[in-house]
Amino acid sequence: MVSGILLREARLRAGLSQAELARRAGKARSAIGRWERGEVQPSFETLRELVRACGLDIGYGVYKYDDHDALLARDSLRSSPAQRLRSAVRAANMLHRAAVNAASADG
Question: What pLDDT score was predicted for residue 53?
Fold first, then answer.
């Protein structure tokens, strides 16, 4: 299903009809429709070829997992509303002091 969403997004961003994309990629228009609807999953190489026919490309890679934001959210949800408010006020005060210091350093 994700490949269909990616394909449709690429086609729409390029301003192409299914028929025009099919012509550019040398595929049947009906196949483009089936792929976009998620009825059939194209191989990664076919998907990449179709996206490139739209003038775009697909990037992929393996990245180090970072759960920092998830841990912050979890900790925040465990805090009471009063604790979250105090934390937000402290952060706002810190940002305000930094802005004042930066403004006075500029002159």
Answer: 98
Q: What's residue 64's pLDDT?
A: 84
Query: How many helices (H) and strands (E) would you count in the chain?
Result: 6, 0
Q: Is 4 exposed, middle or buried (0-12, 13-18, 19+ CB in 10 A)?
A: buried
Q: What is the pTM of this model?
A: 0.57
For residue 98 the two structure tokens come to 């930094």
Same-domain check for residues 36 and 6 = yes
Q: How far apart are CA 94 and CA 26, in angstroms?
A: 59
CATH number at residue 29: 1.10.260.40
